[in-house]
Amino acid sequence: MKVFYEFARRQINKRDEELCGDSVVFSTRPGWATLVFSDGLGSGVKASILSTLTTRVAARMIEEGLPLEDVVRTVSETLPLCKVRKIAYSTFTMAQLFTEGRARLMEYDSPPVFVLRGGRLQAVPYDELPIDGKQVRRYDLTLEAGDWMVIVSDGVVNAGIGGRYPMGWGWEMVGRYLENHVHADLSADGLADRLIEVVRDLYEGAPGDDVTVAVVKVRRWRLLSLFTGPPLRREDDASVVKALTSAHGKRAVCGGTAANIVSRELGRPVEVELETGTESIPPHGRIEGIDLVTEGVLTLAGALEQIREGIPESTLRLRVDGASRLAVLLLEADEIRMLVGRAINPAHQDPDLPKELGLKVQAVRALVEELRRRGKVVDIHYY
Q1: Is the C-alpha dihedral spanning 273, 276, 281, 287 positive or negative?
Q2: Residue 116 forms beta bridges with which residues?
Q3: Which among 238, 235, 240, 212 is positioned nearest to 225, based on CA atoms?
Q4: Which class for 171: exposed (0-12), middle (13-18), buried (19 or more C-beta within 10 A)?
Q5: How do residues 104-127 score in pLDDT, each as one tens digit?
Q6: Where exactly does CATH 3.60.40.10 map onto the chain?
Q7: What is the pTM for the complete model shown?
Q8: What is the assigned CATH class of domain 3-220?
C-alpha cells in the first residue's frame, strides 16, 4: 500500500530579526520525497544564508540520486566552522521518504526527530556515524499510514526558558504535547498551527530564538481516476470504463457523452441533479459507483479557475456546483489518473484553430499543468 507524506511548515523569527535563521526544503518526486531541515548558528542574515545554503545544496544532491551518506559527508565538509566555538555554522536533518513507507533520516546536532504511532511517541533506534569529525545519527524507519514525524529547531525545545519553564520546554514535554494532540482527523497543517501557537505563547510573543516546526503526516495515498471525452473507437468504450471502475480510490466522469458511455457499460442510469446548476456551470449528476458526474468543458475550466485562484478547500466544500466539487476531488488527491478520449466534439471547436486544439484538449492540458505545478502526480492515458 502506497503512503503519502503530507507536509506542513511553520516558522517564527527571533524577536527584532527580519529573517529566520532556520530553513526547510520539502520536495516530492514520483516514488519518494525529500526533507532537509537546517538551523543556522545564531540568528539574522548570516544564519539565514548558511541554513538556506545547507538545505538547497543538500536537497539538490538528494534529488539527483546521491546516497544520503554522501550528501551528509559533502555538506559536512563544506560547512564552515565557528572559530570561537569550534562548531558548525549550521545543523541539519535530512530525510528520504519513500512511498512504500521506507525512510532514512540523518541528523547532526539537532533535536531528535519525534515519531508517533497510534498517538504514542516511539523509541526510534539509530546508528552514530563519524563523518568529517562529526557524530551523525542515522535512522532507518518503516512508516505506516497514521504515523507522524515532527522535526523542530532548538527554538521549540528552549521555549519558555527563564519563564514558565526555567530550563525550557524540553524535548520530553514537546513529545508529551504531541501525544496529547495528534489524531487521525488532524492535518499536518493543523498540528503545525497548534504547536507553533504554543511556542509563541511560551515566548510571550518575543521569541529568544528562531522557531521552526516541520510536520509530516503519513497517510494513505489518494487516487482519483477521471474519465473525460469519448474514445476515438467505440470498441474502446468497455476498456476505458473498466480502467475507471477497477482502480481504487475516487472516480469522476466529466462530459455528457462520457457519462452516457459509463451508464451504458455499467447498466446504471445517469441521474441529473438540476438544483446544482448555476449560470455558468451546468448541473452535475450521479451514477452508482461514481463519485462525481459532470458536464465536460465548462466544468473542467471552472474547476481549473477555482484552483488557480487558490480558493480554500473548506470554502469549496460548501458549494454545490460541479466545478467546485470537481476542484475538491482534484485538490484532495495525491495522484490523478486522466482517462482522456480523443474523439472531438464539433460543438467544442473553434473553426479558426487546428483540430487538436479543441477546447476539451486545451482544458485538460491546462488542468494537468496546474496540478503538476502543485506537486500532484498526474498520469494521462489516451483512448
Answers
A1: negative
A2: 121, 148
A3: 240
A4: middle
A5: 999 998 999 999 999 999 999 999
A6: 3-220
A7: 0.78
A8: alpha beta
